[in-house]
Automatic annotation (TrEMBL):
Residues annotated as domain CobW/HypB/UreG nucleotide-binding: 46-206
Protein name: Hydrogenase accessory protein HypB
Recorded name of the encoding gene: hypB
Family: Belongs to the SIMIBI class G3E GTPase family. HypB/HupM subfamily.
Annotated InterPro entries: CobW/HypB/UreG_nucleotide-bd, Hyd_mat_HypB, P-loop_NTPase
Organism whose genome encodes this protein: Xanthomarina gelatinilytica
UniProt keyword list: GTP-binding, Hydrolase, Metal-binding, Nickel, Nucleotide-binding, Zinc
GO BP, one annotated term: protein maturation
An example molecular function term from Gene Ontology annotations: GTP binding
């Protein structure tokens, strides 16, 4: 099964007893509308997920610094409170919009759709969604993205993929972030990769550090390739 098929099928599968099936159906309906909109404007949509503090915003800043002269890019960022992440991303010179969820622990397709008209999609090649920081709820909500990328920081411990499998099952890429801290931590990249691939054998993995720029070229090249594919589709 292709990555696209397997991850999207997983995103649509309701496994958790507490999950509200109607809510997810409504979400998927709007996610489809977003997908169609992105197909029309040939905008690559990438949903960035992780635990709180794994380095999502820092990676958005670094990616903007590296790619903003190559593509038009923008970021939509979800947080429970404050405009802080959007402010940080705007400092790089790209457009960023904060969605304040007011306590909701994830973004839903409806929230994304509501603010889409604030983005000049016809002229945006690459749109990121920085999701609310946690490995649980964001896993269940398809936002119409082309790709889901999960950061797994070395500071979190290497046991997370098996404890929070749905996030890794529904992701296309795992970025092992804060790799510069590896010499100081009991964290095995080999072990985390093995566990994550046992959950999702098609998961791509890149080790990165936004501080030292390790792996940032590989990450940017992956994005460049995906933007190209989207524009040729
Ligand atoms: N050592 C190290 N620290 C990093 C790296 N990337 C981010 N950080 C630090 O980690 C902390 C959290 O980074 P953020 O980018 O705010 O993380 P986030 O995932 O956006 O956080 P939330 O939006 O709150 O979930 C900050 O103090 C960053 O400076 C990295 O590659 N290496
Ligand atoms: Mg952030």
């Amino acid at each position: 099964m292709s990555i696209e098929k397997s991850t999207k099928a997983a995103r649509g599968t309701v496994q958790c007893e507490n999950t509200n099936i109607n809510l997810l159906k409504a979400n998927d309906f709007v996610a489809d509308i977003i997908k169609k909109e992105m197909a029309k404007t040939k905008t690559l949509l990438v949903n960035i997920t992780s635990s709180a503090g794994s380095g999502k915003t820092t990676l958005m800043q670094k990616t903007a610094e590296k790619l903003k002269d190559k593509f038009t890019m923008a970021v939509m960022v979800g947080d429970l409170e404050t405009e802080r992440d959007a402010d940080r991303i705007r400092e790089t010179g790209i457009f960023a919009l904060q969605i304040v969820t007011g306590g909701i622990c994830h973004l839903e397709a409806q929230m994304v759709h509501q603010v889409l008209d604030r983005f000049d999609l016809e002229n945006i090649d690459l749109l990121f969604i920085e999701n609310v920081g946690n490995l649980v709820c964001p896993a269940s909500f398809d936002l119409g993205e082309d790709y889901r990328v999960t950061l797994m920081a070395t500071t979190e411990g290497d046991d997370k993929p098996k404890k929070y499998p749905r996030m890794f099952l529904t992701s296309d890429m795992m970025l092992v972030s804060k790799a510069d801290l590896l010499p100081y931590l009991p964290f095995s990249v080999e072990a985390v990769t093995k566990d994550a691939r046992e959950v999702n054998h098609e998961l791509e993995v890149i080790q990165i550090s936004s501080l030292t720029e390790e792996g940032i070229d590989a990450w940017c090249n992956w994005l460049i390739e995906k933007v190209k594919q989207k524009q040729q589709a």
